[in-house]
Amino acid sequence: MVLLGSLLQRLAALQGYCGQMPRYYGAQIRGGATAIRLSFDIERPSLPHDIPDILVCFDFSQYHEIEDELGLGAKSAVLYDGLVPSHFLLPDTSLPVNFDEISQSITGSPRNKNIVALGTLARMLPLSMDDARAAIDEDGELRVVQRNLPAFLAGVELVDGLSLPVLELSPAADQRPRVLLHGNSAVAEGAVRAGCRAFFGYPITPASEIMQAMEEALGPLGGVYLQAEDEIASAGMVLGASLTGMRALTATSGPGLDLMTEMLGLASAAEIPMVIVDVQRGGPSTGIPSKSEQSDLGHAVCGGHGDAPRAVLAAWDIESCCRLASESVNIAEEFQTPVILLSDQWLGQTVIAVHEDMLKAGPALRQRKRPLGDHQGPYQRYAWSDDGISPMANVGDKGFTYQTSGLTHDEEGRPAFDFQAHQRCHEKRHRKLETLKDRHDLVKVMGAEDSRAGIIAWGSTAQVVIEVMYDLDLQKQVKICLPELLCPLPNKVQEFMDNLDTLLVVELDFSGQFHAYLRSCLELPARTRIYARAGGRPFSRTELAGVLTEFADAG
Amino acid sequence: MQGNSKFTTDLKPVWCRGCGNFGLYAALTRNVFPSLGLEKDKIFVVSGIGCASRIPGYMDTYGLNGLHGRSLAIAQGAKLARPELTVLAVGGDGDFFSIGAGHLPHAVRRNFDITCIMVNNFVYALTKGQTSPTTPSAPPGDSTFLPSRSYPPVNPLLDMLSYSVSTEASFIAQSLSTDIPHLSRILTEAIAHPGFSLVGVLSPCVTFNPPHLFASIKDNASYLVEGEPVKLPETTGRNSWLHDPGDMAHAMALARIPITEMPFLGVLYRGAGPQ
Ligand SMILES: Cc1ncc(C[n+]2csc(CCOP(=O)(O)OP(=O)(O)O)c2C)c(N)n1
Ligand code: SF4
User: Which atom of ligand 1 lies nearest, measured to the CA of B205?
Assistant: First the structure.
């Protein structure tokens, strides 16, 4: 199914269509039910709608395993193979199609059913057949279609043969080919672009693709890449590389973030730049590894013992995966601090067709503050300064030897055991992040500027909230705040709250961590509602349409 | 003990008087670094947490007294990022054989040019005398070794040397912190070795070891000299052989002999660096 989706998305992307392809899969290692959804948009990669125009199912007996996440409408055209359970009522527009058999008769193997279905779908959408044929001949990624062209053409012919419906699809607004990537590769792209040249990681769903993308990217760049023995080691290696001046990254999901927490504390205490990407999945513990949730927020902003400040950013769409990865590397370097970039399974693994310009405008490279070598006496690694940021020498630099630790220390880095030094260390580490609160560019506000009804959401949830606001035409009635920097929370979020009578907080975690966090940082309107539920199933447009309508109506 | 070597800082070590860690400190700063002609800004010493792990603070090199058991992770990241550095990972038996034990075989396997100095004082010293995986336990009444604090007792102890040999690290040696000339020679060779080196440093904890423990270690020690016959305990009933550090089978045979019976000092095994 994933292959069919990828090929169809690619064919469409080469004709300029944008779109998203989220993946749905269960606990199986291989086999078992998997599904994808695919949206086609003539100008932007919009979220797929809840009710598909077309559903292709290769084995209907497995449909129930992921039915919950897919949805079917009375007008959906369903092409299915396999047994339909007796209690199941298919829409009238359904038709059994034996893709296996067609593939077998044409190519001698049932394995090319994907190619047959590709032809059928390409015709039903409909894509331009001339362009599709040309692309199949030219595009390397479509070589498998070229090799099985008769299967593809048989699929195309099924549409007329079976009188299948043909949809209406306008040509893309801009017909230049789109690039295809998922959030995990966008994160890797952003990190590399910001000068990250070292990656250490340990495989985990749904973050492993970042590791893979970094491996591919860093080899040709002469960077450093290593699969460590666990997440403690990955995070430790990041610190080791970072101390020598290299921009280093690791990526994981909740269980790995737990293990990285002691290194995060050391990075905070000893002021060592480090970036951890957490591609969230359902928790606690092993939870639901293959599905999204926003339940690592609490850990990200204050996980670990001993008051260890860090910066936390959250990506919410494909563009921000890339841009905020660059931003995270920059913030880590400039502020000599650990940074956690939160993503999630949905963002990480949904393949998006987008225009490459969208990924081009990254922030300029920010540098670590470096010592000038004009010091009298020993080099002071933690020299006191107004902004809390001290010049940091790289391990190996001539003339700047210093000794540091996770212990409370003096300006030289030497262990200190008195209250004054301890208080100062805390002050310094917290103070240096203060200026981040002025990063207004890292808070997006959209909708009706003067409205006194506001919605706040972060991460992939925000994407659905925004889509639904436009679906319902509520953009003149409510406004939305979408913080990309979650910690420290920019002042702009308080300003947003100051002009509200009512607030709606939407989040995909059971206990309402985001609301609790906002309350701990801000004054919220007296009339604040929370819509929070467990992850495992992403928010659908229909679900949030109900929530937003009710909120807007209540005024 | 501090001397005026250019490799020391003016920070006064917190170690107890008579602590074996002073020996390691003297060996590194007075002998090893100078004799290798190293520049202090090209040395990075990463340690864990414990008494032994305090050492980076006292040496004027780049240094990090990091997290309990994690020195190797940080050391490997640094070495990969900046290969021209001389990287040392230092810690106690708790660091390398308990909390951080999972990191060790992987560091060996990668065979990066890092020298791992495991200071074995047979006890968790910094936390005031708890048993470590290397603590030789003994029945009540035996005053040489620490009484077992596990019920039922946990035995046998994790022998540093035999573990190191089982990993087939590319350089394996053991020395005493109280024999500074020997320790210096061993460490110099370990650092010069182009791959991963494991050096066990048997070291007295004057505060938490039973008084006879270290004396018995010294008394029973057998110094290995290349090309000369190996002194074996009588109980082995084997004929001796000429010591050849290139022979892994011999290293394994030595590693089978419990440290409580006869600690071997010298280079046990010297193999190839990274290919
Ligand atoms: C995660 C963690 N757990 C426990 C400790 C407490 N602790 C500090 S040192 C130490 C053991 C020290 O023993 P060893 O590593 O043998 O070093 P030594 O002090 O004997 O040189 C322990 C348990 C710690 N610092 N961090
Ligand atoms: S407690 Fe033992 S190991 Fe620690 S400093 Fe004192 S003698 Fe040395």
Answer: 20
Q: Check A224 against B65: CB less than 8 A apart.
A: no
* Predicted local distance difference test score (pLDDT) of residue B4: 42
Percentage of chain A surpassing pLDDT 90? 90
Q: Is the CB of B53 under 6 A from ligand 2?
A: no
Set of chain A residues whose Cβ sits within 8 Å of the Cβ of B102: 229-230
Contact B67 A262 (CB under 8 A): yes
Helices A113-124 and A2-13 pack at an angle, to 10 degrees, of: 40
Show the tokens assigned to B275: 């290919």
Q: For residue B53, which atom of ligand 1 is closest to its CA?
A: 21
Q: Whose CA is nearest to atom 3 of ligand 2?
A: B205
First CA to last CA across chain A, in angstroms? 44
Q: How far is B127 from chain A (nearest CA, A)?
A: 16
CA distances from A122 to A110, A261, A496, B185, B254 (A): 20, 48, 45, 74, 71
Kindly report the pTM of this predicted structure.
0.96
Q: Over the stretch A13-64, which tens digit does the pLDDT of each residue have?
A: 999 999 999 999 877 777 788 999 999 999 999 999 999 999 999 999 888 8
C-alpha closest to that of B94 among B53, B59, B63: B53
Q: Which of A14, A349, A3 has its CA nearest to residue A178?
A: A14
Calculate Rg over the CA atoms of chain A: 26
Compute the distance between CA of residue A474 and CA of residue A554 in angstroms, rounded to an integer.
13
**Tens of pLDDT along B12-68?**
999 999 999 999 999 999 999 999 999 999 999 999 999 999 999 999 999 999 999
State whether the beta carbon of B95 lies less than 6 angstroms from ligand 1.
yes
Average pLDDT of the residues in A187-197: 97
What are the chain A neighbours of B274 within 8 Å (beta carbons)? none
- Rounded to the nearest 5°, which phi and psi values hold at A204? -165, 140
ipTM: 0.95
Q: Which residues of B touch A414 (CB under 8 A)?
A: 9, 11, 57
Cα B135 to averaged position of ligand 1 atoms, centre (Å): 14
What is the arrangement of strands in the sheet containing A54-57, beginning at the earlier edge strand?
A54-57, A77-80, A94-96
Nearest listed ligand to the Cα of residue B124: 1
Q: Which of B25, B51, B67, B68 to mutate to test the pocket of ligand 1 (most atoms within 8 A of CB)?
A: B68
pLDDT confidence band for B3 (50 / 70 / 90) = very low
Task: State in Å: Cα B132 to ligand 1 middle.
Answer: 10
Q: What dihedral angle (degrees, nearest 10) is formed by the CA atoms of B58, B64, B66, B69?
A: -80
Distance CA A476, CA A8 (A): 36
Positive or negative: CA dihedral A303, A307, A311, A313: positive
Tell me what pLDDT residue B139 has: 61
